[in-house]
Model the fold of this input.
Amino acid sequence: MAKTGKSKQKKMNARVDFTPMVDMIMLLVTFFMLCTTLIKPQTMEIAMPADLETNEENSTQVEESKAVTLLLDEGDAIYYFEGIPGQATPEKTTYGKGGVRDKLLRKNQVAYQKIQQLKKEFQLQQSSDPQTFAKNKEAYEAKVKEITGGDDTPNVIIKASDKATYYNLVDALDEMKICNIGKFMINDFTEDDQKILDEAKGIGTPTNQ
Done:
């Protein structure tokens, strides 16, 4: 009787060649580098009124009845006062509704109501025709500029101390847009402004004996 033996099978080593995959990854990386737009640093454009330059000389020439000053300080604190600096006591308030926004709306109430009415009229005049829409929008923006630059609108001066943050300044500029303030400036924070803040906080100035 013949002997039957089990045949031995050769063991194959499984090996995956990743060289084509590496080439594919390099092609994909090159493709995205060439086709993807690089992220540009975002900056905020501030449209300052052309008839109100940001300098100390003009800030002192603003009529007392129309002058409003905002002092931005640490801890998201904002101080509001009307009139000429040194002759009015700053009032500490907050950003948004119930704070500085209500004060600015009260000061700019006439212009704000006119613009709200103008917005309603513009919405009613909207057209599907691009040329007509662009024409109506141009007329609307011209009327808004005329209203916000009127003689009965306030002149707001924004001053940020070294302890205020960039976001505080952005919030203050947002309030200008929300309240339809057309005449405002960002001015330098001086030593006199710091004295005004210290007095509002109740911080006494030390005297030399």
